[in-house]
Write a structure and sequence with these properties.
The chain has about 900 residues and is α/β, with parallel strands linked by helices. It contains 41 helices and 16 strands. Among the domains are: about 170 residues, Winged helix-like DNA-binding domain superfamily/Winged helix DNA-binding domain (Arc Repressor Mutant, subunit A, Orthogonal Bundle); about 180 residues, Rossmann fold; about 90 residues; about 70 residues, Arc Repressor Mutant, subunit A; about 90 residues, Tetratricopeptide repeat domain (Serine Threonine Protein Phosphatase 5, Tetratricopeptide repeat), CATH 1.25.40. It holds the Pfam family NB-ARC.
């Protein structure tokens, strides 16, 4: 059942729409739908629905409308009376508008263009005409209709960008022309049309479109086109290679469908200062590459000299030469807080990008590096390792496959990489005067640079020909066109020396004076946001996290972020994520210390509350059976991310993983101990299921210390217990046992029998992993007794299955069977789908070994249905493999081959080592 708002207001169930008669009834339903899951007061409903014309009987009439709507929705609890009003209480997504917003959010944040296309098209398909079409005569609902119209328009523009990425430029041209006829001054639509025309080989028409818009804007509004359009025109005139459409790289795995290869390069900087010599050297190395070797190049130079810009620009330029993918990682070698990216973390990111199944990834760094080299074997992949600290950080990330190329940037020269691995060194110096002038001309226009040649040269001198400083100066000239370049030069000259030079061992440039001048030119609100962002531990920040730091709404923080980007004081590597250059990050933190000393603690608490409360919401969506924990009250001004399902929760944790790791370290250093252990608690399931066990163990180590400082024994015990799982996953069983014993002692001191039960359950699981099945049986019995005594029926059912499984692994199938059957019956009563699947698989295994192949197959099929519903591909394949074994034992070789073939295709698609085991079954059948 769903309320539909994106068209006439009605109710839909199973695809069948039911009309709601009467303007006022529809209006009441629309207001509740627009506040789905929130209480709307009766006064507010009456005000929106009747306004100044509300009759004396409005409250009684409202109650009758609510009663009617409940009947229309088919459930008395669909609208709940809660003082001081009512709440729409439908399962799932209560309205089509809510569904559309979720799909748009997924579409605009997905890194996969094909998935983004599906999400955005799905969202737009929900519009059936003018939103709230039959209630817009009511003022507030008319305003909401306008908002939903704008949402549709934003989704349309986002879809066009995705389709441009996928090469649909020719088909888009007539669609864009039609959209522009309705919005003649929409510069973003004109940008998209110009790009589509250029990519379709109609360069002259593209430039003519720009000139026509320029004239129309001047005649009608008295303004010039914005920066984005001016830069696009310049790029078209020079036929910049970055404007070409690039279809996503693909890689084909035997037995699987075509899958998109990784394309991880950040956005290229449009105003790149042409490092012609360095670009030519890199180009020559690729064209003259020895087909039997891996090419490695290092780019070194001082901070702010443009190493990353060069690397990313060149990588985009040559990415067609690497059809199997482009990998990128910022190793944060010179991070302000010393938070180097561990090579193991970078390797996991690369393996994830190639779709390697978690179960296949070993815990040992050397073994991970070997697997990485195996995955890249035979492929042509470009690997960009940005901001490396030293050679030790780089070596595990080097491919072994001929045809691959590695580009490393660092402030250090990485001499050992040159001597041992044969890397080609490129040292990046300051720009020449001509290159600096070219950078400014690309941003300001050749006419302006020529007209104020003397002032331009003074800006170049004041910025010491350092690209970062020049980019910031250029941004100020562009965003303040009323100020001549001479005025900017004078401001730079006046600010020079007013602050100490940036404390950096590898630069003697007074770049801080450039930062200071640009910072002081910001609006007051943007300057405040800039310095508060300096408190963020990195490596990047979302819009909602930035809003929380500033105590603003997301809508309120967006124009401030845009101002910082325009001023080149902030980078935007991906949609709605932002980051600093590390020199600017240090400067922003210094500004916060100097200009915001009393606000830092409150801002940091808002930031931590944002991550904690959003993370806890995501954790419960991923595993709703967890016992929730008590959390501190939300600080005023904090924005909490609204996640609507397991997929969004997983995506949020994935996007914020590196951030949360840094946030936990910062929280521990700043004394926010409760946030430390609760953030570690929130990430538990995501990191465990994703196989990020080293990171998980590190977080939980910090959690144990933080809970100890707080004197919170229960939190300490839980962290010990969870850390044991991480160590067990990595095969470090002695450490796993130590943590479980510590947890057991703490729970005993607290007389917490539920906690003791969980430790016994874990000890049984650990014993089974070590093949000590008799010990596993003893621990499972104790866990079952304790869970039953503490009134935890779901965990008792899981422990009962654990006991049955331990008996089965011990070979005692007759004892195993009734315990697993009882566990399954109880889980069905309690609705525990995840463990129903596992227990059904256990019973399939048990009945197979008891010789009842028909019943074994039935249990396996039930497990398959559940694993498919849960979208657990690995265990679906594992169960199919077992089902094939049962068919073979029953003499049905044809059915066995069908099951094994299905298992093989899934495992092969996951790049899982078990695919070889199943392949051997097929070959031997």
């Amino acid at each position: 059942m769903q309320v539909r708002l994106l068209g006439p207001v009605d109710v839909a169930a199973a695809g069948v729409a039911t009309e709601v008669p009467g303007l006022r009834r529809k209006a009441v339903l629309a207001v509740l739908g627009l506040h789905a899951g929130q209480i709307v007061s009766s006064d507010r409903l009456i005000d929106v629905v009747w306004g100044d014309r509300a009759p004396a009987t409005a409250l009684n009439t409202l109650q009758r409308h609510i009663s009617y709507l409940r009947d229309a929705l088919g459930c008395k609890t669909s609208i709940v009376a809660r003082p001081p009003g009512y709440l729409l209480n439908l399962p799932g997504e209560a309205t089509d508008a809510e569904a559309a917003q979720r799909l748009i959010r997924l579409g605009t944040t997905s890194s996969d263009p094909a998935r983004a296309l599906d999400h955005l098209r799905g969202a737009l398909a929900l519009w059936r005409g003018r939103p709230l079409a039959d209630v817009t005569e009511l003022r507030w609902l008319g305003e909401q209709a306008d908002r939903l119209d704008h949402l549709e328009y934003e989704a349309t523009r986002a879809l066009i960008d995705v389709r441009l990425t996928l090469g649909e430029h020719a088909r888009l041209i007539p669609e864009l022309e039609q959209l522009i006829s309705a919005r003649p001054f929409d510069e973003d639509l004109h940008r998209q049309l110009m790009l589509a025309l250029y990519r379709a080989g109609r360069q002259a028409e593209s430039l003519a479109r720009y000139q026509q818009l320029k004239r129309d804007l001047a005649d009608e509004l008295g303004i010039d086109p914005g920066l984005a359009l001016r830069e696009l025109e310049a790029a078209i005139l020079r036929q910049d290679s970055s404007l070409q459409a690039h279809a996503p790289a693909v890689t084909v795995t035997a037995g699987s469908a075509v899958a998109a290869g990784p394309a991880q390069l950040p956005l290229a900087i449009p105003a790149f200062a042409a490092r012609h010599g360095e670009i030519a050297r890199l180009d020559a190395m690729v064209t003259g590459q020895n087909p039997a070797s891996v090419l490695i190049a290092t780019v070194s130079g001082t901070a702010g000299v443009g190493k990353t810009t060069l690397a990313v620009h060149w990588a985009h330029r040559v990415r067609h030469s690497f059809p199997d993918g482009q990998l990128y990682v910022d190793l944060r070698g010179f991070d302000r807080d010393g938070a180097l990216v561990d090579p193991a973390v970078a390797l996991r990111g690369f393996l994830d990008a190639f779709g390697v199944a978690v179960q296949r990834i070993p815990a040992d760094l050397d073994a991970q590096a070997a697997l990485y080299r195996s995955v890249l074997s035979g492929k042509r992949v470009l690997v960009v390792l940005d901001n490396a600290r030293d050679v030790a950080q780089v070596r595990p990330l080097l491919p072994g496959s001929p045809g691959c190329t590695v580009l490393v940037t660092s402030r250090n020269q990485l001499t050992a990489l040159v001597t041992a691995e044969g890397a080609v060194p490129i040292t990046l110096g300051l720009l020449t005067d001509d290159e600096a002038r070219d950078l400014l001309a690309r941003r300001l226009g050749e006419d302006r640079v020529t007209a104020e040649a003397g002032a331009v040269q003074e800006v170049i001198t004041q910025c010491a020909r350092l690209p970062l400083a020049l980019a910031i100066a250029a941004a100020s000239c562009v965003t303040r066109p009323e100020v001549p370049v001479a005025g900017v030069a004078a401001q730079l000259r006046d600010s020079a020396g007013t602050l100490e030079a940036l404390n950096s061992a590898d630069t003697d440039t007074d770049i801080r004076s450039v930062f200071s001048w640009s910072y002081h030119a910001l609006s007051a609100d943007s300057a405040r946001l800039f310095r508060l962002l300096g408190l963020h531990p990195g490596p990047d920040v979302s819009e909602s996290a930035a809003a929380s730091l500033a105590g603003l709404s997301v809508a309120g923080v967006r124009p401030l972020l845009a101002e910082l980007i325009q001023a080149n004081l902030l980078l935007q590597p991906n949609l709605r994520r932002y980051r600093f250059h590390d020199l600017l990050w240090t400067y922003a933190a210094d500004c916060a210390q100097q200009d915001e000393p009393e606000q830092q603690v409150q801002a940091m608490r808002r930031l931590l509350d944002h991550y904690l409360h959003t993370g806890l919401s995501a954790a419960m969506l991923i595993n709703p059976h967890r016992d929730p924990i008590a959390v501190p009250e939300l600080s005023p001004g904090t924005t909490v991310g609204r996640l609507t399902g397991k997929e969004e929760a997983t995506d949020w944790f994935t996007a914020e993983r590196a951030v949360l790791f840094a946030v936990i370290k910062r929280a521990a250093a700043d004394g926010f101990d409760r946030h430390v252990w609760q953030l570690a608690w929130a990430q538990q399931d995501h990191l465990d299921r994703g196989g990020h066990w080293e990171e998980h163990a590190a977080n939980l180590g910090a959690a144990i210390e933080a809970a100890g400082r707080q004197g919170d024994q229960a939190a300490q015990a839980h962290a010990h217990q969870s850390r044991s799982t991480a160590f067990a996953r990595m095969g470090r069983y002695e450490q796993a046992h130590t943590h479980l014993n510590d947890a057991l002692k703490l729970y005993a001191d607290l007389d917490d029998r539920g906690g003791q039960a969980t430790v016994q359950y874990q000890l049984g699981w650990l014993a089974n992993r070590q093949r000590d099945h008799e010990q596993a049986i003893r621990h499972a019995r104790q866990a079952l007794r304790l869970y039953r005594a503490t009134g935890k029926p779901m965990m008792a059912a899981r422990a009962l299955n654990s006991l049955g499984w331990a008996y089965a692994l011990h070979g005692d199938y007759r004892r195993a069977r009734p315990r697993c059957e009882q566990a399954l019956a109880r889980m069905r009563e309690l609705g525990d789908l995840t463990f129903q699947a596992g227990t059904s698989d256990s019973l399939g295994y048990i009945h197979h070994h008891l010789g009842d192949y028909e019943l074994a197959a039935a249990h396996y099929r039930r497990a398959l249905d559940l694993f498919r519903d849960l979208n657990d591909r690995y265990y679906e394949a594992d169960t199919l493999s077992h089902l094939g074994d049962t068919h073979r034992a029953a003499g049905d070789l044809r059915a066995a081959r069908i099951a094994w073939q299905q298992a093989y295709e899934i495992l092969d698609g996951l790049a899982h080592a078990d695919a070889l085991v199943v392949r051997a079954k097929l070959d031997g059948a």
